[in-house]
Amino acid sequence: MKLKQIIFGICLLQISVCSSQEFTKHTIDGSLKNVRGSRVADLDNDGDLDIVALRKGTIPGPGISVWFNDGNGDFATYLPVHESKEEFLDGHADDIEVMDVNNDGFLDIVAAIQFDRTTTGGFEFETHDLAWWPNNQNQGFGNPIIIETNVGLRSQSIQLLDVDNNGFEDILTYSFDFNGSIEDAIWYWPNTGSGTFSSKEVFLQGEYRYFEKAKVNDDDLEDLVLVEWLSGIALGINNGSTSFEIGTISNIGTDLYFRIGLGFIDDDEVLDITASVFNSQTSFLSWLKGLGNAEFDNEQVIPYELDSNTAMDTGIEDFDDDGDADIVITTFSNNQPSLHMWENLGNGTFASRRTLNTDQAAGYSIQVADFDKDGDKDILQTTSNGVFWFENRLIGLPDDDDDGVINDIDLCPGTPMGASVDENGCSPVQLVDLGAQDILIKATSLSCIDSNDGTISIDFVKEYPYTVEITGDEGFSKSYTNVPYDLTFVENQLKPGTYQVCVGITDVPEYPSRCFSLIINNLESVSTLGKITVNKDSKKASITVQGSSLYVVQVNGVEFRFATDSEEARSIQIPLENGINNVSISTDNECQGVLNNTILLDKIVLLKNLEGQYSLNGLKENQASILNVYSLGGKLLFQKKIPRDTPIFDFELNSLSSGYYIVNLNYPNQVLSFKLYKD
Predict the structure, then answer these.
(1) 182 CB neighbour count, 10 Å cutoff
(2) In what order do the strands lie in the sheet with 223-228?
(3) pTM, rounded to two decimals
(4) CA separation, residue 324 to residues 268, 296, 320, 321, 328 (Å)
(5) Could you tell me which CATH class the domain 439-520 is placed in?
(6) Strands of 33-76, DSSP E
(7) Domain 527-601 superfamily per CATH
(8) Angle, vertex CA 372, rays to CA 369 and CA 377, nearest 5
(9) pLDDT in tens, 620-634
């Protein structure tokens, strides 16, 4: 789709740069015709402003449509809420409202629209029924619930106001009928607060075809600003009861006042009124300066420069961020541009008209809202040719990271080029606050030798939906998405080996994952712990252990317990007695077995482990010696030199057959003999 851009220069008085303002037109729906009233609200509670609009009762028939906003001003999700099966010749359903009728926390839709057909005087008319459409809380709406049938041929304005002061907003609408069966008046339906409405009552008598609610005096009650057909503008002052006091503030004979806008135009923080007006000769835009306490100055005309019979809806907003409220208007004509803007130059003076939409179509309604969350107000326009929004962007103000949010209000400077940002200038990645300390990860080794039941567990501190990817030896790979933060994630039945675990954010796939390396160990037999070292001076034996959290040692029937960190190697000290010490070592896990040994203190000790290796313990530290192994017949079968300062000497006799042997340990002045049996 080719984008149409309207750019005009603005030199801001408050800052020293001259910037330009750009409006980019986006087509929401170009297929619907005669789209009239509209409202902007968060209909699916996702924090983004959605659009609901009402279509007039001509071909293809009256209808209500909703477009859901994805947060960036993209209204790709379209929902037809109400579609007529018939073509109506007349009838004007011009306005629509949203309110939480059933108090479920979601906004419902309220409108008066054609449901039935009637014929009067040979001319086909269609009356309107007032109804509400319940929000199903999942981007959908239920069937209409009729509040009242036959509320008139035209329903040109709907507002919500707590008329009876019961804490619930009531429905106000202006309706009339050409044949006089419906009285010209603003009617209201009292809200019971339980999802139902009482019977309608006349609220204000008169032809007040359009009205807006606002606080116009010094109390805290909401009043009404009324457009009286062919008469002017009036006020409905709320006196705290169900009857409002009427006062006319402007009257210019037979001019037709069509729509009004409310806002603060001249920097005095007192409510002003703009009005679109036309008569048989010309059209013009006027504004009434608010003086406070329901008083307004004389009407001032703003140069309009458009054909007659074109004035329609107006909006007031500071679009160029210069502190002054500008005016935007949509025009009701099929042969001239349909959207225009007047820049406020300060103190209620305006620059010449600027055209924002050059399409020649009949414009109906305007809504002002920040659809793309960039901090400035955009424009929604409904016309005879569809629904459009105009993206507002100030060009030239300091924006170092070029994300559309100027430096002064950018809470996340340095946004990567092309990243989508919210109204604060923050991309989804920049909003993630996740450190390594927020991911509590643990590996648990096997419970028994070769049991392959290792586990990896993860607890999360921050509230995100997570992705978890685990890779390991032998091609092991598993991945998970939408892992909840409030449950412990566990991957079990793992083999011994090295694993890499990477944790990311499901909703922010571009956020870099945090990765951890973990080792799952096999459980080993205590027979593989290694050698026992004897210290005769301290009367203690020591052995290095690893792999279990508890070691149970028995020495001549006396039990000693040693608690350890199973992941780290440490030495445990075993107390000994003089003489023979029968030592057994086991763990709290039976499948690791038992290591048995005999230690003779104050003597040189010959030991044997389960692998058939022999060890001489307690050798003299300052003397070298020679180890000789003889058969029982005196034949030398094995000989080794043992250097000095070797308290422990290991040797093997694998080449000898089973049987008894004599072991001699030869010192310079001493020979020690042992009898050895080899299995």
Answers:
(1) 18
(2) 208-214, 223-228, 232-238, 244-250
(3) 0.60
(4) 11, 19, 8, 7, 13
(5) mainly beta
(6) 35-41, 50-55, 63-68
(7) Immunoglobulins (2.60.40.10)
(8) 35
(9) 778 899 999 999 888
